[in-house]
Specification:
The protein is mainly α. It has 16 helices and 4 strands. A two-stranded antiparallel ribbon has the order 1-4. A two-stranded antiparallel sheet has the order 2-3.
Length: about 425
C-alpha cells in the first residue's frame, strides 16, 4: 500500500510540475519572441504616448496589437498582470518531486559509491547545498560585474564557466542519473531565483516610483533584462536534464559530464537560432553546430564505441570493490542463458530492492517483486528492458552487475523467458 501511495504522489507531482513548467516556459518564450518581433510605431500618437515598439498579430480568430513602452506609460493602469506564479509553482513542484524521489531515497538514487562514497544523509545535504551554492555563485557574478558598461560578454563567459564546473562536480559526486537531474535543478533554481530576487522586485520598484510621481531607475530594467536573457538560454538545457533520467545511455557513460555539457550546449545554440529568427535573422550555423555536437555524442555513446575493450589500467575496478562484495553469477557460459543462471543474477543483483522486505529501499522498487520464479516470469519484459536494453537497473549499478550477467538475462528473454 505504501508503494502504491508513493506512486500516486509521484504521478500527481510530476503532472503538476509539467503543467506549471509549460506555463512558465510558454510565457517566457512568448515574451522573448514578442520583444524581438516589435517594430517602431509610425503613428504619431503612439510615439507621443512613449510606445517604442508594437506588433500586429492574428490568433484564434482575433487581432492583437501588443505595445511596448520605452520605459513605462505616463499613467499606469490600475490593474497590472504580473508573471511570476508560473516560475514559483514550477520550482516548488519540482523540489517536492525531487524530495519525494531522491532525498527520501538518497541511498538508492543519489549515492553511487563507485563515483563518491558518502552516506545517504551526506548525499541529501550535499544535493541541497549544491542548489544553494550554484545560485550564490551565479548571483555574485551578475551582481558584482553585471552593472558595468559592456560587461555582458564577460558575465556570460563566467556563467558558462560556472555551468561547466558545476556539471563536472555533480557527475563526480552523485550517481549519473542524479547528477544530470541536479545539474538541471541547479540551473532551474537560478532561473526561478532570478524571478524572485531580481526581476519581480525590480519591476515593483519601478511601478512604485511611477505611482509616487518619480522617474523609475532604469537599472532595474537592465538587471531584469540581463537575467531574463540568461533564463531563456538555460531553458532547453534544463529540459534535457529533466528528461535525461529516461535515457541511461547518457548518464551512465564513462565521461557523462562531457555528454551533458555537449547536449546542454546544443540546446543553448538551438535557442539562439530561434532568438535570432524572431528578429528576422536566419543564422544556420547555430543549429548546424548543435547537430554536430549531438552527432558526436551519439557516435561516442554508440555500442560500437562503448563496447571496445579498455585496458585494465584505464578502467580499474571501482574503489573498495572486491570479489567478496560483488559475487559473479556467470558461472556457466553466457550463451546458455538458462533460468537457473537468471535466478542467480537476480538473487545477487536485484533482490536487494525487489523483495518483500528489501534491504536497500523502504519498499520494493516500483512495487515489483522478483523473489520467486513466478514473479520473475511476470516481470520478464520489465527486467529485460531495464537491465539489458536501457541498462538503467540496478540504480547506479550499486550491486555491481556485469555486462556478462546482463547478457545472461538477454539470452534467456530472447529464448522465450522460460522458467524451466
Amino acid at each position: 500500500m505504501e508503494a502504491y501511495i508513493l506512486d500516486w504522489l509521484n504521478l500527481l507531482l510530476r503532472w503538476l510540475h509539467v503543467i506549471t513548467a509549460i506555463a512558465w516556459i510558454g510565457s517566457s518564450f512568448y515574451f522573448v519572441w514578442l520583444d524581438n518581433s516589435l517594430v517602431a510605431p509610425t503613428d504619431p500618437e503612439l510615439k507621443e504616448k512613449g510606445v517604442g515598439g508594437e506588433l500586429w498579430a492574428v490568433h484564434g480568430g482575433g487581432f492583437y496589437n501588443p505595445q511596448k513602452y520605452l520605459l513605462a506609460p505616463k499613467v499606469l493602469p490600475e490593474h497590472l498582470h504580473w508573471f511570476y506564479w508560473e516560475s514559483y509553482s514550477t520550482w516548488l513542484s519540482g523540489f517536492a518531486l525531487f524530495s519525494l524521489l531522491y532525498l527520501f531515497n538518497a541511498n538508492v538514487f543519489l549515492v553511487d559509491r563507485n563515483v563518491f562514497d558518502m552516506s545517504a544523509s551526506m548525499a541529501g545535504g550535499t544535493a541541497i547545498a549544491f542548489l544553494v551554492f550554484n545560485w550564490l555563485v551565479y548571483d555574485a557574478i551578475c551582481s558584482t560585474i553585471g552593472d558595468r558598461a559592456g560587461a555582458d560578454r564577460l558575465v556570460n563567459l563566467l556563467v558558462g564557466l560556472q555551468v561547466v564546473v558545476s556539471v563536472w562536480a555533480a557527475c563526480h559526486l552523485f550517481s549519473g542519473r542524479a547528477a544530470f537531474l541536479i545539474s538541471g535543478a541547479s540551473m532551474a533554481t537560478i532561473m526561478s531565483a532570478n524571478v524572485l530576487v531580481w526581476i519581480i522586485p525590480g519591476q515593483r520598484k519601478m511601478v512604485a516610483s511611477m505611482r509616487a510621481g518619480q522617474a523609475p531607475d532604469p537599472i532595474h530594467g537592465k538587471r531584469g533584462k540581463q537575467r531574463s536573457v540568461h533564463n531563456t538560454y538555460f531553458t532547453l538545457p534544463v529540459l534535457f536534464a529533466m528528461l535525461s533520467n529516461h535515457y541511461s545511455m547518457t548518464y551512465s557513460a564513462p565521461h557523462n559530464w562531457v555528454v551533458l555539457l555537449f547536449i546542454m550546449a546544443a540546446g543553448a545554440l538551438i535557442r539562439q537560432f530561434f532568438v535570432l529568427r524572431h528578429k528576422g535573422v536566419y543564422n544556420w550555423w547555430y543549429p548546424g553546430v548543435a547537430v554536430v555536437l549531438l552527432l558526436a555524442v551519439a557516435v561516442g555513446l554508440s555500442p560500437a564505441m562503448r563496447d571496445k575493450p579498455v585496458p585494465a589500467v584505464l578502467h580499474p575496478a571501482p574503489a573498495g570493490a572486491d570479489a567478496a562484495a560483488a559475487p559473479t553469477a556467470a558461472a556457466a557460459p553466457v550463451t546458455q542463458g538458462g533460468f537457473a543462471q537468471v535466478q542467480q543474477v537476480i538473487q545477487a543483483r536485484c533482490i536487494q530492492c525487489h523483495a518483500a522486505q528489501p534491504t536497500l529501499m523502504p519498499v520494493p522498487g516500483k512495487g515489483v517483486l522478483l523473489d520467486s520464479s513466478e514473479h520473475i516470469a511476470q516481470h520478464a519484459q520489465q527486467i529485460y528492458q531495464q537491465a539489458v536494453v536501457q541498462k538503467s537497473m540496478p540504480l547506479g549499478n550499486m550491486t555491481h552487475i556485469t555486462d556478462e550477467e546482463r547478457a545472461i538475462i538477454g539470452k534467456w528473454f530472447e529464448a522465450g523467458a522460460a522458467t524451466r
